[in-house]
Amino acid sequence: MEEENLHKTIICSIIKRMELKQILVVLMLFCFVTLQAEWQNLEVLSDESLWSSSSLTESLKGKTVTYGPDALFDGDYHTAWVEGVPGNGVGESVLIQTNRGIEEFAIVNGFALSKRLFLKNNRIKNISFYFVAGLTAPGLVSELDYSLYFTQEMLFRENLLLEDHRDVQSFMMGESVDIQWTFFREIVQQFSQDYPDLFHMILDDLHMTMFDFNEEMNIRLILEIYGFTGLKIVISDVYAGSHYDDSCISEIDLTLTDY
Asked: Which among 1, 164, 222, 242 is placed 20 to 30 Å from 86, CA to CA?
């Protein structure tokens, strides 16, 4: 009993000496290890860094119009990404490759072209953030010149509340940069165990070994050449539109920093 109390005292003492940022990293990664996700396949063209789970396509004045995710980063509040599934779009998502840390997230909610369109369509009430990390390897290119990445994701922030207006809304995420980087390092370790043949191809190409790949500069090189990190934004709830059941986001802006 005395030994157990001593262990608790030591643990509490260690936690007290840790910075809040360090504690967050430990807790987030503990959750990731505890709820170990399965690898997912992501096919990426060389010039791609943005994907959506769906996009609305409709005919306007005889022309086919698609409200794709590119509208989120065109600097124009009069365009919008609109999800394209039946229902209100809860569960639909956008994935943004960054390969850098995310310090700040900004969003223009709804279809901001006009107040009328804003109110007629759904706006986002809650969103959830997932960090995505993964690796590819030499030769993992499909017949259509897609590079195949093996990725996993980790929930970072759930059900963030957005206000129901057309102005820019910003959220600081500076505490997440260490979490993102540590998550990528954990993914590299996991990949080396689950796909040893592919991982040895990476090491051979970068002139590394199993003894030195985990050094900081080598992990950074692996990220630069074969790595993937990004942010997945998921619609968790919506403000209902007066006429349509399509959920819209007009603009997103990310402030990035090196890991």
From this structure: 164
